[in-house]
Amino acid sequence: PSVNELTKILSNLLNQSAILLGIAMMLLVAVPQKLSAQTGTLPPVSKLKKLSVEELMNIEVTSVSKTPQKLAEVASAIQVLTGEDIRRSPAILLPEILRLAPNLQVTRSGSHDWAVTARGFNGFPIANSSLADKLLVTIDGRAVYNSLFGGVYWDVQGVLKDEIDRIEVVSGPGGTLWGANAVNGVINLISKSAKETQGLVASASVGSFLHDGFAARYGSHVDSTFFYRVYANRFDFGNTKTKNGSDAMDDWNMTRSGFRMDFMPSTKNTLTVQGDLYFGNEDIPDSVATLVNGQNLLARWTHSFSGHSNLNIQAYFDRTWRNIKRQGFTDEINTFDIDIQHGFKLGKHSNILWGLDYRTLNDITKDTSKTTTTFTPLNRVLPLFSAFLQDQLTLIPNRLELTLGTKILHNYYTQFEWQPSIRLAWTVSSKQTIWSAVSRAVRTPSRYDVDLTSFVNIDHPFKSENVIAYELGYRVRPKDNMSFSLATFFNDYRELRSIDATGDPIVPYVFANSLEAKTWGIEFSGNYVVTPSWRLRGGATYLGEDFDSTSVNTYPGNSKFEAIDPNFQCLLQSILNLPKNIELDFLCKYVDDLDGSAALGITKVPGYFSLDLRCGWTYKSLTLGVSVLNLTDKNHVEFGTRQIPRSIHGKIGFRF
User: Fold this and answer.
1) If we measure between CA atoms, which residue out of 373, 374, 379, 455 comes closest to residue 412?
2) For the chain, first and last CA: distance in Å?
């Protein structure tokens, strides 16, 4: 048969498989009691026999208070993606992994483009990203928020899946500890130590959308105090489709390598040094390609004075470079950051945490087309100073805890900003916690807001966007094998970015702060160990938004420039072990409609249901796996206009 005939055969098989798989999954969910009776014939899910729901709720997280806290007792809406959740997902890249977090909105707008946010504000889709500028992302303590456009270039953020220890996803303001731009949430990726990744691991993948990929990691040690690892990986993705079904010409490839060293000379001291470099080619052919490369180096020293006092000093350098040939534009950002954090106990019921941070960003842009100037001035040096203080007060031992804190920062554009918060956690019992919080957070201006040449007007200085957020949540473990979390919120945003008419023929439009918004919603999540061999996790979110303009000059439909968000979404991940070392996992997700805007030329995107399937088999040091993404839909649009194709890929791995 020809290639076209083989494609049609495979497509028909996938369609039939989707129907059969859907029926099988409904039957499995409907009869968990029958499956429970057969647990003696099925192997336990890896690590779940050691990690019960109770232990999952007692995982220590650090993203909310920057000190270890039990997940069940944290006064914040937080989801934790464990290393096992991540390994058992069909996802390949980091933004795809983040789909596992029910409190995030993650959509793909092209082969290498994603929009990721929490509690809304996935803004207008642009090349390589979107104007999603209210979510702060850190990878092992290194912030990857982009100072030019605001937000994250997800195409250049990458880690090996089996190096991830966990990902903590906080929805809601985190500015008190994390600083500016943690308005709607914080994603904190924490990788495994070099000691936990010893030996040689290698894998190769091939498929229809992921054309090819490989990864290799080697870890060893000098002695019992010094451990290290090195890694390298590369992948090559194909094109998405345009509205009419033709190739969108957005295929891409990326090569990445790096290292990590952990030195523990004593029980009180730990030194970590790690770094990465990458380079890639996007939107091939070369004549209009986007070229990217970057390097980073981080060092962190932790010293423990006692069981109640410790000091953490961290410094990193991060360089990113991007050449967008299609637009005749290059940008290079060099970031240096040093952070000091000290925690100690004051009396019996007070835990003090304070810190200082200095960051400088050197942003260098060039217009290689020599026909226009995109940013005025072309280059900027942006210093940032900040300090924070937090006090965790135990009002009633093991019952009631109050956390007070604030962060003060000084930035180049708006000078001083402050971000206070107050959080209260009431542990009703060992299985129930009620929490509430009130916080203020700001998004400081990016160069896109202030220096975009066609929008520069000195009579309209751009201010920081800000929000006052009110939250109320509840966590409960009604049975030993299940847990649920519910978070509600109401956010009041002021001085949001708007596009306003000026009446000036030279600069007809300008970025101003003429939008206000109120958002509200509910976030639900849960874990359910059906049998020792089968675990379900997932959740659902509802988001309501109401925008209002404070100026008659605001451009019509302006809110869609800032927020293109679904009202409702839900997901379910299943992790199932079968006999003979076979793993069968799936992730299904439904996302509601995305409204469009005729004034801004934004097309409405209908809601969609997606189903991703993974099947793996392990024999000694050999691992084989097959994954199918978008099993239920051949092509669908998630964000923008590009159609994301159904895809299948296989993987072979070795571990020594």
Assistant:
1) 379
2) 40
User: To the nearest whole percent, how much of the chain has pLDDT over 70?
Assistant: 90
Summarize the confidence of residues 592-597 as an average pLDDT: 88
Q: Mapping DSSP to helix (H, G, I), strand (E, B) and coil, where does residue 152 land?
A: coil
* Angstrom distance (rounded) from CA 517 to CA 443: 14
- Please count the other Cβ atoms lying within 10 Å of the Cβ belonging to residue 126: 15
Average pLDDT over residues 180-209: 95
Q: CA dist 562 to 496, 544, 557, Å? A: 9, 15, 10
Q: What is the pTM of this model?
A: 0.91
Residue for token digits 């509600």?
488
Measure the CA angle with vertex 340, ends 337 and 343; round to 5°. 150
In angstroms, the CA 540 to CA 523 distance is: 6
47-56, 84-93, 156-165, 637-646 — which is least confidently predicted?
A: 47-56
As a whole number, mean pLDDT of residues 547-563 equals 89
The single-letter code of the amino acid at 237 is F
Ramachandran quadrant class, 151 (left: phi over 0; alpha: psi -120 to 50; beta: rest): left
What one-letter code names the amino acid at 430? S
> Which of helix, strand or coil describes residue 98?
helix
Burial of 504 per CB tally in 10 Å (0-12, 13-18, 19+): exposed
Cis peptide before 95 (omega within 30 of 0): no
